[in-house]
């Protein structure tokens, strides 16, 4: 393609059916913002309340909060058809399953192409229906793409476009974070800090790390674990109880949902993600962009980010394997620095917002041409 020819600018409706703070919602903010910066017209629709509408508006994205559940979703369907016409929308881009059903109906009724990003391992028929109508799907990893193919979606209708992170621009911007964060949580300046940046829930495996913490403390007695993210309260209570039973409760810190994730991430020595299931691992990518060494379980899409012994350490989903990986990194500052720097270069090369948007633009062009 001639680089002097300007890329087509699309009028895009982004629709997501959750307003929480998980990977899909955070991806939507960065995607909408970057598309807009690249000259596209973007209107994002999400459920009212919670984190997402505020964050989209703060990013300067035109936002329309609409109900996605219950009787209100019927009115939302009618409203979306009106919005498509009023804003002369050319592409409807959906995220998460309920939004995909809405997008499917709106696309049929307004005769607009629909693109759907698949953020989770799902066998819901909505994605097969979309693809059979000639609407392309975006997989967030090759692991998700393989899953969709195994569940009846044609390989030719799925394109993998990896998530990006704008944490790349923040590397080094919180130079005092290690000292400040340790002071905030009452830790000594020389303490080791392992961070887990994910909702405290069984799928993210914080319980595995708590089980392995005694093994880590035997080698590194000055270690603390910082859990950052919203909490499944029942699971968090069980995790706290288990930490108490193991005698490590004083070493486990629950920070809850925070708006200074990059600062906290720059304060830790190691980032861990001991997930049971993971389609991509946005928190891992953010840590890599900040030059942080990562220990992650060998599941789902994580090996596509964490190249063992190159950009981080992959471990099995066992207590001993996780503890061994953490001990190895906590023992060697040289290894932490080397893996962190390689990870940072990898993120800067392959996971910039601009690179992600180029991939998304190619899917939009394909959808409109179909």
Q: Explain this structure to me?
A:
The protein is of the alpha/beta class and about 375 residues long. It folds into two domains: about 10-165 and about 350-370, Rossmann fold, CATH 3.40.50; about 165-350, 3-Layer(aba) Sandwich (Rossmann fold). The chain is built from 15 helices and 13 strands. The chain has helices spanning about 25-35, 50-60, 70-85, 95-110, 125-130, 140-150, 175-185, 205-220, 235-245, 260-265, 280-290, 300-305, 320-330, 335-350, 355-370; strands at about 10-15, 40-45, 60-65, 90-95, 115-120, 135-140, 160, 190-195, 225-230, 250-255, 270-275, 295, 315. Strands 3-2-1-4-5-6-7 form a seven-stranded parallel β-sheet, with helices on both faces. It has a six-stranded parallel β-sheet with strand order 10-9-8-11-12-13, sandwiched between helices. About 50% of the residues are buried. Mean pLDDT is about 95; it is low at about 1-5.
Condensed summary:
This protein is α/β, with parallel strands linked by helices.
Structure characteristics:
Rossmann fold; 13 strands; alpha/beta; disordered N terminus; 46% helix; 2 domains; seven-stranded parallel sheet; 370 residues; six-stranded parallel sheet; 15 helices; elongated
CATH fold title of the largest domain: Rossmann fold
**Span of the ends, CA to CA:** 20 Å
Percentage beta strand: 15-25%
What spatial form do the alpha-carbon principal axes imply? elongated
- The overall pLDDT, averaged over residues, is 95
Using only CA atoms, what is the Rg? 21 Å
Question: Strand pairing plus helix content: what structural class?
Answer: alpha/beta
Instruction: Count the DSSP helices.
Output: 15
Indicate how many domains the architecture comprises.
2
The CATH class of the largest domain: Alpha Beta
Widest sheet: strand ordering:
3-2-1-4-5-6-7
CATH H-level homologous superfamily name of the largest domain:
Glycogen Phosphorylase B
* Overall number of strands: 13
Proportion of residues in helical segments: 40-55%
Question: What series of H and E elements makes up the topology?
Answer: EHEHEHEHEHEHEHEHEHEHEHEHEHHH
Low-confidence stretches: 1-5
Can you tell me the CATH architecture of the largest domain? 3-Layer(aba) Sandwich
Instruction: Profile the largest sheet.
Output: 7 strands, parallel
């Amino acid at each position: 393609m001639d680089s002097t020819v300007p890329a087509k600018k699309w009028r895009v409706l982004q629709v997501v059916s959750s307003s929480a703070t998980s990977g899909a919602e955070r991806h939507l903010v960065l995607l909408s913002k970057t598309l807009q910066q690249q000259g596209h017209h973007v209107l994002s629709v999400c459920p009212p309340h919670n984190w997402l509408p505020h964050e989209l508006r703060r990013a300067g994205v035109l936002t329309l909060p609409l109900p996605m559940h219950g009787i209100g979703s019927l009115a939302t369907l009618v409203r979306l058809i009106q919005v498509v016409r009023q804003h002369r929308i050319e592409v409807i881009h959906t995220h998460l399953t309920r939004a995909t059903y809405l997008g499917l109906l709106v696309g049929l009724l307004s005769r607009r192409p629909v693109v759907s990003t698949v953020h989770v391992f799902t066998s819901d028929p909505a994605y097969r229906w979309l693809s059979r109508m000639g609407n392309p799907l975006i997989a967030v990893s090759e692991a998700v793409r393989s899953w969709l193919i195994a569940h009846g979606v044609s390989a030719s209708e799925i394109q993998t476009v990896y998530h990006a992170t704008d944490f790349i621009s923040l590397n080094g911007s919180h130079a005092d974070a290690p000292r400040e964060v340790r002071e905030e949580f009452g830790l000594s300046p020389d303490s080791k800090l392992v961070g887990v940046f994910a909702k405290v829930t069984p799928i993210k495996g914080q319980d595995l790390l708590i089980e392995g913490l005694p093994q880590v403390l035997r080698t590194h007695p000055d270690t603390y674990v910082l859990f950052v993210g919203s909490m499944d309260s029942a699971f968090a209570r069980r995790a706290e109880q288990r930490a108490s039973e193991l005698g490590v409760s004083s070493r486990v810190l629950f920070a809850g949902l925070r708006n200074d994730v990059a600062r906290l991430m720059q304060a830790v020595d190691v980032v861990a993600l001991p997930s049971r299931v993971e389609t991509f691992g946005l928190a891992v990518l953010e840590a890599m962009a900040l030059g942080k060494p990562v220990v992650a379980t060998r599941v789902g899409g994580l090996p596509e980010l964490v190249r063992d012994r190159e950009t981080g350490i992959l471990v099995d989903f066992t207590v001993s394997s996780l503890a061994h990986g953490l001990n190895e990194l906590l023992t060697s500052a040289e290894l932490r620095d080397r893996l962190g720097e390689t990870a940072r270069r990898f993120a800067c090369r392959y996971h910039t917002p601009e690179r992600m948007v180029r991939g998304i633009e190619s899917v939009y062009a394909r959808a409109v041409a179909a």
